[in-house]
Design brief:
heterodimer; A: 185 residues; B: 609 residues; alpha+beta; six-stranded antiparallel β-sheet; two-stranded antiparallel ribbon; 14 strands; 51% helix; 11% strand
Chain lengths: 185, 609
């Protein structure tokens, strides 16, 4: 919820015009959303907090020096909002994990938005055989349960679990190779 | 698996979900821009005066323009009257008066147009006091017209660090929140609420007695004083000396050099208790006074500003190096830069905890909440009651969810929903003061219990040295000396720590700031331990444990990958067991993940897009 004064402040303080802000939002919103998801937010919460992060950004003394610094500012704000949200929900968060997400993000995401990684993942998905790819799509796109996937693929429910894990592992290894990332231990 | 590997895996997993057609980032550009730019006022809302130095010239300009406009309007009016006499429609003067009106608007806008620095300062103050009725400092133009003052009262304008205030030359004056700050020697005084008497050439150490009585009669003649105010004036301990200016906070509170000075701080404990009692009585009779729609005059004590508010303002005043009206991490914890990593982490943790809107800065409202948490007993209850009153925008004794959210910027819809669900015990959709206080009190008890349970790893209801290393450092926690700490001992210890960080009453800014840091450091161990328990996970699928890795599907692993890129399926096979054990670890978090999902989707639906 943004008050009238906040809005005035946003304009007065930042010196960022509406068009410039539109550009910033456009370039960073996907990145902030993905970052929040990586921190542990559900899609809906990530959506909320991402919007709030931009509002906070504009109601503070913000000067746009470049996409890298603005991205870092937004991520920091998003992280704080996430922590506040967890507090409200009585949920405990391991701060080391959050720090690790930030470190990994800096190392892995070169374009602020994560589109490069997404592209690499799509390619890796395409490189899978039909069955594991279909299992992943059913799981993520169609939100199918294990039983439904098992029925569709004519395998046991326990097998679905293994299939999904293996498929994910293959994709992870593939994307790590593509992006020259260090393999997880 | 290190936390970094886990994070990398989680990030990939999130992106994979998206790449496979799952949840993808939404386009919220429009909603964000609407939130920030729609219904922007076209004319400045704040009336900011021109600089004193240029007032003369501008005043002449305005007078000329205004005079010209008035003459033009008069001429048009005369012409219109002539036309009317001739039977012409009197509406003929409409365009001219509209033009005159436009000109007036223009003049007003010009007069109100601030220079950039002044607007910035005003804006900053606007943020700091966003929900306050009156800012600490208002333009000199309001002068002292509505204030009581002595006949021989004179003053001159003064400027300090870009801020304009006044210096007394002669006589006495009531200062209220509308008045500019009073500068005297190196001191500055700002009235926060209520009113403060400032008397030039008055030294209470020598002038107490007859001169004080004479002064009081003079003041009373011009502006009747309440009994409490008279009592306060008569007590020399209620006076502060700024060189040759004596000041006495008659009602409410003021900031002297950034430190709070309360009318309650009489130094007389009995009187102080009476004041607290009377303010409690006032708050208990809140409904009746609010229904009559009249507020008590400034003679009432503590009806608008709590001790926490003043302390928060003092903290900001003392620590706000960049003068932006809020405290960054570095400003709040100046020692953090040189602190060991663990301590710095605990500070960061604590800071994040206090920074409820997550903007990386502590504003006055957030500090009020923190300070009211670290207060105890009556002060604490009073602080909560004051906060409740602040939230109760329509003053009907109940806080609706809309009022709650309006009064707590940064709180999400989801969080407000959750708070109301737990706090609104009678389910009428609004919170009474009792419901609000009950929730907050329960919070504190719950928090201590949570902390205890967190340390008590084996769940035996006793903390050993291994579980709670502070036992080895501070023996006072183990009251019965049996080598372990029960919940009662733990609770007592925490409460004492919090209490020792409480500096209610008059205190200087340094003690305030240290108290705040103290209380935060007392939380260090708890916050760092809090961070030890992990239970958040991003992907539901990640958290699905797999105990049956030796399923028949294993044999199909090599065929899952078809390209050369994925040829090393052997390694994936060998890693299977580790991956499974990792996923087992995170399986416990599924429930919390799903619960957050609930509130998140609720938030989404309420916000819309």
């Amino acid at each position: 919820m943004v008050g009238r004064k906040d809005k005035m402040l946003a304009q007065a303080k930042s010196g960022v015009t509406r068009d410039e802000l539109a550009g910033i939002v456009d370039r960073h919103q996907a990145g902030v959303w993905r970052y929040l998801r990586a921190l542990g937010c559900t899609p809906a919460l990530a959506d909320d907090l991402m919007q709030e992060a931009f509002v906070v950004l504009m109601t503070r003394d913000f000067v746009h020096h470049g996409d890298a610094s603005t991205g870092a500012y937004l991520r920091k704000t998003a992280r704080n909002l996430f922590l506040a949200e967890c507090r409200h929900q009585g949920r405990q968060v391991n701060l080391e994990d959050l720090d690790a997400v930030e470190a990994v993000w800096k190392e892995t995401i070169s374009d602020e938005s994560g589109e490069t990684m997404k592209g690499a993942l799509q390619q890796c998905l395409r490189s899978l055989t039909d069955r594991p790819r279909l299992a992943l799509e059913l799981r993520y796109r169609d939100k199918a349960s294990r039983e439904q996937i098992a029925e569709r693929l004519s395998i046991k429910a326990g097998g679905v679990k293994t299939l999904l894990q293996r498929a994910r592992k293959l994709v992870e290894e593939c994307v790590r190779r593509r992006l020259n990332l260090e393999a997880g231990s | 698996m290190s936390s970094k590997d886990k994070a990398q895996s989680r990030l990939i997993s999130v992106m994979l979900e998206e790449a496979a057609g799952g949840a993808a980032p939404p386009d919220r550009s429009k909603a964000i821009l609407e939130q920030l730019y729609d219904d922007m006022p076209r004319v400045p809302l704040q009336v900011i005066p021109p600089k004193q130095g240029s007032r003369g010239n501008r005043g002449m300009l305005y007078a000329l323009i205004g005079g010209g406009a008035a003459v033009a309007a008069l001429l048009v009016l005369l012409l219109a009257m002539n036309f009317s006499d001739d039977g012409t429609s009197p509406g003929a003067d409409q365009p001219a008066s509209a033009a005159s009106g436009e000109e007036d608007d223009q003049v007003r806008d010009e007069r109100n147009a601030p220079d950039r620095g002044e607007r910035r300062r005003q804006s900053d103050r606007g943020t700091r006091n966003e929900r306050k009725v009156t800012p600490l400092v208002t333009p000199l133009e309001v002068s002292f017209a509505p204030l009581a003052r002595s006949e021989d009262f004179t003053w001159q304008a003064a400027e300090r660090q870009g801020e304009r205030g006044i210096q007394l030359d002669k006589g006495w004056v009531f200062l209220d929140p509308k008045a500019p700050p009073l500068f005297e020697d190196n001191h500055d005084l700002r009235v926060h609420d209520g009113r403060t008497l400032a008397v030039k050439n008055f030294d209470v150490s020598t002038d107490a007695g007859q001169r004080l009585e004479t002064l009081m009669n003079q003041v009373n003649d011009r502006h009747p004083l309440g009994d409490e105010e008279k009592q306060r004036m008569r007590n020399p301990r209620n006076w502060k000396q700024l060189r040759d200016v004596g000041i006495c906070v008659l009602a409410g509170g003021a900031l002297l050099n950034g430190s709070p000075l309360l009318a309650q701080d009489s130094g007389d404990t009995a009187a102080k208790e009476d004041v607290v009692k009377s303010s409690e009585e006032k708050s208990s009779s809140h409904e009746s006074s609010s229904s009559s729609g009249t507020n008590n005059d400034s003679g009432s004590v503590g009806n608008s500003g709590s001790a926490e508010e003043l302390k928060a303002a003092a903290l900001i005043g003392a620590k706000d190096a960049d003068k932006n009206g809020s405290l960054s991490f570095e400003e709040f914890f100046p020692t953090a830069a040189n602190a060991p990593e663990m301590a710095r982490k605990a500070m960061a943790d604590r800071f994040a905890e206090m920074d409820s809107n997550g903007d990386g800065e502590l504003n006055q409202d957030e500090l009020v909440v923190v300070l009211s948490k670290s207060s105890s007993g009556t002060d604490k209850v009073q602080g909560l009651k004051n906060h409740f009153k602040k939230l109760d925008a329509d003053n009907n004794g109940f806080v609706t969810q809309t009022e709650f959210m309006a009064g707590m910027p940064g709180v999400t819809q989801a969080a407000a929903d959750q708070f109301f669900t737990s706090a609104d015990t009678d389910g009428d959709g609004q919170l009474s003061e009792q419901e609000y206080l009950a929730t907050k009190s329960a919070d504190i008890g719950d928090q201590i219990r949570k902390q205890f349970d967190m340390y008590d790893k084996n769940g035996d209801g006793q903390l050993t040295k291994d579980e709670f290393p502070i036992i080895g450092v501070d023996a006072s926690i183990d009251a019965d000396g049996d080598g372990s700490v029960s919940f009662e001992e733990f609770e007592k210890f925490i409460k004492e720590k919090v209490k020792s960080g409480d500096h209610s009453g008059s205190s200087d800014s340094s003690s305030d700031s240290s108290s705040s840091e103290d209380s935060s450091s007392s939380h260090k161990s708890s916050s760092s331990s809090e961070s030890k328990s992990a239970n958040d996970s991003s992907s539901a699928e990640d958290s699905s444990s797999s105990s049956d890795s030796s399923s028949s599907e294993d044999s199909s692993s090599s065929s899952d990958s078809k390209s050369a890129e994925d040829s090393d399926s052997n390694s994936s096979k060998s890693n299977d067991s580790s991956s499974n054990s990792n996923s087992q670890k995170s399986s416990s978090s599924q429930s919390s993940s799903s619960s957050s999902k609930k509130s998140g989707s609720g938030a989404k639906s309420s916000k819309g897009s």
